[in-house]
Amino acid sequence: MLTRIVQSTTNLFPLWSVLTAVLALAWPDSFSWLGKESIPWGLGIIMLGMGLTLTWNDFLRVFRTPIPILVGVCLQFIVMPGLGWSIGRLLELPAELAAGLILVSCCPGGTASNVVVYLARANVALSVAMTAFSTILAVVATPYLTAALAGTMVPVDALGLLKTTFTVVILPVTAGALINQFFRKQAERVSVVFPLVSVIFIILIVGFIMAVQREKILEHWQVILSSVLLLHGGGFLLGYCLPRLLGFDELVRRTISVE
């Protein structure tokens, strides 16, 4: 019964996200209390929950076949920056919005992608591996691509980026996988409710960001919404179709699309 309730609630994740965004814009105080410093902790708890569903065999299978990781990361740093630049030109975005869109498109896959892959029942181990690899590569790729496409160099704290990746992604996932490896029964009991916990933390983070950026969002909402929808829609579509042309299976295609 509990499993069915949790699954039904988590499957409505897109609905909760939209409702959260609307509420945060209409009533910022409902989410502004969260505080920026709470975000890494929330993401770390989410990643711990995902680690509880993994075993070492899951990661061994991924690293025995590294081609999906390499293909996914290459597509990420080719497809998304190309889309960001093209959409900025197509919609004739103001310079600062176009630069922001390009910067977003040049960033690596983050913990949110791992959450969505987890909820979509795709290949979580592949998603985490892609996130770690793309984040390390982003130390060079993000500023270089942004400079080339937006005309400005974005400073990147390489050590801080690696530290954040380790503490927010790799360390919690590894801890969760260790718990699952050596305390399987206890992990299975706890992991039943973690999808719901993940959804709660993600919508709180979404609400906080929407609340603190309310004025800017409301001022430019039409062009922001259009460009973001085109960027993500194009990324999902190309991220799914291109791996399909390369012969990857459904779970890998779905994972690369989300990532």
Structure in words:
The chain has 259 residues and is an all-alpha fold. 81% of the residues lie in helices and 0% in strands. It is built from 14 helices and no strands. It has helices at residues 2-10, 13-26, 38-51, 56-64, 67-90, 95-106, 111-119, 124-150, 158-182, 184-191, 194-212, 214-219, 221-245, 250-258. Helix 8 packs antiparallel against helix 9 (158-182). It is globular. The model has no long low-confidence stretch (mean pLDDT 86).
Helix content: over 70%
**How many helical elements?**
14
The biggest sheet, with number of strands, parallel, antiparallel or mixed sense and barrel status, is: none
What are the secondary-structure elements, in order, as H or E?
Answer: HHHHHHHHHHHHHH
Instruction: List segments where confidence is low: pLDDT < 50 over at least 5 consecutive residues.
Output: none
Q: What fraction of the residues are assigned to beta strands by DSSP? A: under 5%
Mean pLDDT: 86
* Shape annotation: globular
Secondary structure class reads mainly alpha
Ends distance? 32 Å
Number of strands: 0
The Cα radius of gyration reads 18 Å
